[in-house]
Task: structure prediction
Amino acid sequence: MKNLFVLLSLASLAAAEPTGPRDWKSSANTTIHADALALKQGIVTLRKDDGTTLKVPLAKFATDDQKALLAHFGEEQAKAASGSGIAFVTEGLPHPIGKTSGPIKTGDGSTYFVYLPKTLREGRKAPLLHFNGSGGGSAASLKGYLEGAELNGWILAACVESRNSNPIPSNHEHAKRCVEHLVSTLPIDRERVYFTGQSGGGAMSFYNAARLDAAGAIPLIGYIPQGTSIRKGHYFICGGATDWNRYLCGQATVFLGKDAVHRVHPGGHSSTPSWILNEGITWLNGRYLGDASRKRELDPERADYEAALLAWIGVLREKEPHRALFWCRFLTDTYKAKGNTATAAEAIARELERDDINKLYVEGIAAIDEFSRDYYATFEYSGYANGLTSDRIIKAADKLAEKYAGIPFIEDTAREMGLKTAGQRR
Result:
């Protein structure tokens, strides 16, 4: 978490000291003698011996020179961090920064835990992600979301009283009181409240989002409760490949159309991996900022989001280049970045696409969502959805697994998607 915060801080700092003149090698094995003046949003500014300057995407440099540039500008910017003028919130809030606090009483019988990220900006309201648990919320409920909260500057909260043993209306009232208390005591953007939670909490995520006119949700192994009318928002729906709610998740994805995706992963009616939860926050943030591009007042936040995401892509490309490519393509194709951000993301994407594994991973993520819409959403059954599948689903899942054999995450997920629904991961 500390390294992530440093990374995000560096993404917003002013330019470091130049490197000094030296030979730089490109990925095409050409060489140029120049002084690197700056590295910003994936673009390197070079000054040649004759004094002329040019801008080159970082991805165009040879691997060793890329590492040298990242190390130089990162180290130099870190030295200047204390005097950089970055307006991060450090004090003046009712709870400590970078820690989970609670339980906090609303005064009306509801309590919650809250996490304030280190990347909160002075003078800017932050989105809120509110957790609803099938067995009640706790400090532990927020752990899987911390990286995403820091990357995007989101506040997290978990309602203690949200649990399956309470009727839906009672659950909703607890969540509503927690949200109202949070909005009244912290710098939260009321237009950007989101919900999350697993199983019954996933169902409550849909219900609360609808009733409180939220900006969306990350429902986990959940379903849309009967009679719930959702009018707006973006939805990053998650669930295990053998989860008994997978058919209901597929139906929800179809119902919400282009504003939702179904991120299926290996496992049954169990927890979603934290890396997917963090991608969910980043996806929701990008969808909102991209769709709201006409709102000029959000331009500073968009700039921060783009810089942070490019920096994160730089980290991912070292060990998980397939995920790095996914987020490059999210920036170019879904978020529809412009200017230097688009140039940098496109340059990195083209380099990563030289490896078919990376390309097939991005393609496979979309194929899994499409599979859910085509097969899970249309599967007809009655009664409890445990132990169910069909020949049609089995054949389609086997075909998907064969097509993406050897592709990280995709093959494993596809192989389970045709199995009978089950409870916990085997």
About this structure: Confidence is low (pLDDT under 50) at residues 8-15, 75-85. The first strand starts at residue 21 and ends at 25. The chain has 13 helices and twelve strands.
